[in-house]
Amino acid sequence: MKVVTTIKELQTILGEYRSEGKTIGLVPTMGALHAGHASLVERSVRENDVTVVSIFLNPTQFNDKTDLEKYPRTLEADCELLTQVGATIAFAPSVSEVYPEPDTRQFSYPPTDSVMEGAFRPGHFNGVCQVVSKLFSYVNADRAYFGEKDFQQIAVIRRMVADLGFGVEIVPCPVIREESGLARSSRNTLLSEDERKLAANIYRIMKKSLDLYPAHSVAVVHDYVVREINEIEGLEVKYYSIVDGETLADVTSWDDAPHIVGCITVYCGAAPIRLIDHIKYKG
Fold this sequence. Notes:
Layout: E1 2-4, H1 7-19, E2 24-29, H2 35-47, E3 50-55, H3 65-70, H4 75-85, E4 89-91, H5 95-98, H6 117-120, H7 124-139, E5 143-147, H8 151-164, E6 169-173, H9 193-209, H10 218-230, E7 235-244, E8 260-268, E9 273-282
Parallel strand pairs: 1-4, 2-3, 2-5, 3-4, 5-6
Antiparallel strand pairs: 7-8, 8-9
Helix pairs in contact: 7-8, 9-10
């Protein structure tokens, strides 16, 4: 595997691959890679001739500077993992390489980017669109792979791809979970062992709420999840939204959409650490 730090070198290498008719897969990451990321890379390796994995902690999608500072940085270990799973190129640029000057572009795709994370983290999805659009332009990939743990992010990126006319196929990949059910996340490394056990209750309770669907109303299911999680000391629900799986607009009835998903953000522990997850009720 080759580690590349400049856009020019990346595009030179990819130009050679394209001249040979090879297909290119892209896995955008912010580093601190784990088994969930590995599964995305392995799928890209299976489905493409060349796999590029970007490792870039994007500052424009953090509205909380403390959150950015706390985010784990493990480039050496990341490159070891990527070598093991067969990535072709690790693209690890500096902030000045990606943003030689401030990116003033504004992206707006309501309600997809204005609810849930969009409501609680102003500017977050604008930053996501800024960096992902840049990566798509650099790589010109045939396919790009994203984990479904970031369910809302995928929906926003699909809107951006349609808006800007990128020819890339967006490939969503299933959530990879720890044995406890906790969704694998780079943020999990910030949790103590006790906090990891606490955090496992998030998915356990959401999964249990499936027993209430569809006999009980959306409101009853929503309130059950929030109440059960908040009753556990050390966990605090920031929001739990049961939404149309395509538009992410709130639903009030199970008949409102063919695809319905529950999306949650929970603060765990004393720090606290922000954890997201989701569960599919319908479709």
